[in-house]
Amino acid sequence: MAEKQAPDAFLSELKKRAEWVYDYLRSNRYVGRFPEGHVRDAVYRYVDSCGKCLRPAVLLFSCGAVGGDETKALPAAAGIEVFHTWTLVHDDIIDRDDRRRGKATVHAEFAARAETDLALRGTEAEHYGTTVAILTGDIQHGWAVSLFSELSAQHGVDPAISLYLVNCLNSEVLNRVMQGEMSDVQNSKASIDELQEAVILETIRMKTGALYQFAGKAGAMIGLNTSDPRHKWVRAVSAFAEQCGAAFQLQDDILGIVGDEQRLGKPVGSDIREGKRTTIVYFALRNANSTERNRLKELLDNEVTTDDRVDEAVRLLADLGGIDETKRLAERFVADSLRHLDKLPPSPYRDLMSSLAEYVICRDF
């Protein structure tokens, strides 16, 4: 199946929103909030690396699609990016990844700095790096919440909306994301014979879909200036965004196995090394004969995984259709998401949301 390419016009609009968000976060009033040295460097490490900003884009496009002024939603877009960033910092510790956005992860970077700056060695240096990463995530979580308060303080959004969004983010969304993370870890330790597609997809909906759904909800509520999450357009945008989030994660799982490590900016094959139970693994096992199944289980359940074993696992996952079936599943999620957009009035913003849905499954990094 030929890969689709995102239109240049859409990529330009996506880049524009990313620049708005990162310029907002790099303003002097924020930079000066954090002490110089390890604290500031750690807090800004992933911000300065510049991600794709898809969640902020969902929020801003959703605001515009319901007739709102997306510039009023900018603090929330910045807030959701910082919230996402702290989850990455902690996720990198959990997954023991040492690369993110082409650079050392926070815990890896500050383990190295512990040696050069503090003369720590071995496990003490590693512990310092982990400590810095945990504290960095805590700081960023607080920063994300404070950004949402600016909706009312600086942009005239109804305070009832700001309060609702802060409460939703720090209760419903946080709990779903953390439960998704916990489920992801627990599934990776469970027997591969117990793998269920429904469990994998529910984990994806919690770990990734929840924050996308919130991005759509927040953008629509700000755009409509309503504190009612049951408004028909808010529900439509929320459902669209959650489906896009699930599709994004499925494509991320594919790229984590067969992507270009230089373009991804993070290790390829780490999901195999960590024993992640993805739909790729589920579909491959379902299609395997007994010999192939036993070999794949041996490769995925072995804690000491060499590069050769990872390469063999990738070949088996591909040959057994795990990647292709996961790609088709992601495409179905996108098709379902687009049906929710039909409930919104036609507009350039709705077109941007449609393009974003297609982009999440055609991207190669």
Can you tell me about this structure?
Helix content is 76%, strand content 1%. It has 365 residues and is an all-alpha fold. It has a single domain (8-362), classed as Farnesyl Diphosphate Synthase (Orthogonal Bundle), CATH 1.10.600. Strands 1-2 form a two-stranded antiparallel ribbon. β1 (99-100) and β2 form a beta hairpin. α4 (54-65) packs antiparallel against α5, α9 (197-224) crosses α10 (232-258) and α16 (322-341) packs antiparallel against α17 (348-362). The longest helix is centred in the middle third of the chain and has 34 residues, at 122-155.
CATH-assigned homologous superfamily = Farnesyl Diphosphate Synthase
CATH class: Mainly Alpha
Give the CATH topology.
Farnesyl Diphosphate Synthase
Indicate the overall shape.
globular
Strand order of the largest sheet: 1-2
Structural class of the helices, strands and pairings? mainly alpha
Q: Cα-atom Rg, whole angstroms?
A: 21 Å
Number of domains: 1
Termini separation comes to 18 Å
Query: β content, as a range?
Result: under 5%
Biggest sheet, in brief?
Answer: 2 strands, antiparallel
* Average predicted local confidence, pLDDT: 94
Percent helix, as a range, is over 70%
CATH architecture: Orthogonal Bundle
Low-confidence stretches: none
Order of helices and strands: HHHHHEEHHHHHHHHHHHH
Task: Please work out how many helical segments DSSP would assign.
Answer: 17
Number-wise, the strands total 2
